[in-house]
Amino acid sequence: MAAPPDEQTPGNAEAPDDVLGDASAGGTLASGTPASGTPASGTPASGTPASGTPRVLRTASVRLNRAGEVRVRRGHPWIFEDMIARAPATAAAGDVATLYDTRNRLVAVGLFDPSSPIRVRVWAGPGERIDEALFVERLTASVARRASVASARTTGYRVVNGPNDAMPGVVLDRYDRTLVLKLYAASLLPHLPSLVRAIEQVLAPDVLVLRLSRAVAAHELAAQLADGVTILGALDDGPVAFLENGVVFEADPLRGQKTGFFLDQRDNRALLERRTPQGARVLNVFAYSGGFSLYAARAGASHVTSLDLSPHALAQAERHMALNAQRDARVAAAEHRSLCGDAFAELQRLRDAGESFDVVVIDPPSFAKRAAERERALVSYGRLARLGAALVRPGGLLVLASCSSRVDAASFRSASEQGVSAAGRRFEVVDVTGHAPDHPATIEEAEYLKAVWMRLR
After folding, report:
1. What domain range includes position 104?
2. Three-state DSSP class for 305?
3. Model confidence over 338-377: pLDDT tens digits?
4. How far is 323 from 286, CA to CA, in rounded Å?
5. Are 94 and 114 found together in one domain?
6. Are residues 160 and 234 in the same domain?
7. What is the per-residue pLDDT across 316-327, written as a single tens digit (0 to 9) for each?
8. Positive or negative CA dihedral for 161, 167, 170, 173?
9. Secondary structure (3-state) at 281
10. How many C-beta atoms surround the C-beta of residue 185 within 10 A?
11. φ, ψ for residue 37 (rounded to 5)?
12. Would you say 25 and 262 are in contact if contact means Cβ atoms under 8 Å apart?
């Protein structure tokens, strides 16, 4: 199963995470449990950015070069270091950057971060203030955009998707009455009290958990914070249940990957349910906590296999199956098998054992977080397509997904088609889909998730 990868950085720098949402979507690639920090519970001590008086912020006048000016006028929210002609040497993370073009005209306002490749994240136009009122305005607009997503049957979804909701560096996910705020920019830390108050005003959560990217957690401004701290309400040290199209899932807001669950594949999971025939045998590769497996079972599949390298992930998939079996006779009737192992090796082993399936879903984690990894990623995608195609029965469905922001949709589709052809299979591409609408993509770098649906002959 994904998120979200996120902000594109130049060259081979690792992509940050607030634009693409769940870009690490996909099952576990390396052994062990999902990556996480050690959470701290309870409200931050007085004096931390979440509860104390923030330090006095300054205004930094930043002169853009021609490339920076063009970028701002095109509406892109990221200003990289090489797009700046001049900036104060004393400017600190969180200072409000007033951006001037090559003719010394004020063009935008953002937040400065001298430690990030993205020196300025643009938040507002000339004359606007970055304050609590602006946060309230942006949050209100984001909530309104999700009106078609939120319902009694779907209580887990993304509320804010970084710069795609005009809130660069901010990801906010809802799991029923618990919200998880993840920061991907240290420049937001001095503004955290205002942001938290805005979240309280607009969304009134029972619980608000703060998560920090690795880079933000390591910043000196986060010295009194911890990844996984509860800053509003109280949360037991356990999972939080929520609904997705009536399916029960559990998120781990304190320790789970990203904010605790991969939400961006929701619509693809629902589409799989509609395309899974009664009595089908289904294989879910890189299954993680079993999202596609559950939807296939609810569609009436007779047998579902979840394959992942992580025993921890597979245990969660089994738990999700058990929770939903209590609510749905179709899930209870499906035979569920967990396979723990390397996906490439296990796919070959299943083929050697003569197994076949009506539906095969392959949804790996990101294979290319840097530009230099792109070609190797395409080779891996092609190999997975070839191995998966060999297991699909004639007339069956092969679903291949990628959450690698460095791999564009056309290249991924080409690699997938070549892989299926290498398996000696003829095919028809019946659909190419992306992420769910609560993960909007207003900039090119945000279009990270793609899925190719093939009917094999």
Report:
1. 59-124
2. strand
3. 999 999 999 999 999 999 999 999 999 999 988 899 999 9
4. 21
5. yes
6. yes
7. 999 999 999 999
8. negative
9. strand
10. 25
11. -95, 180
12. yes
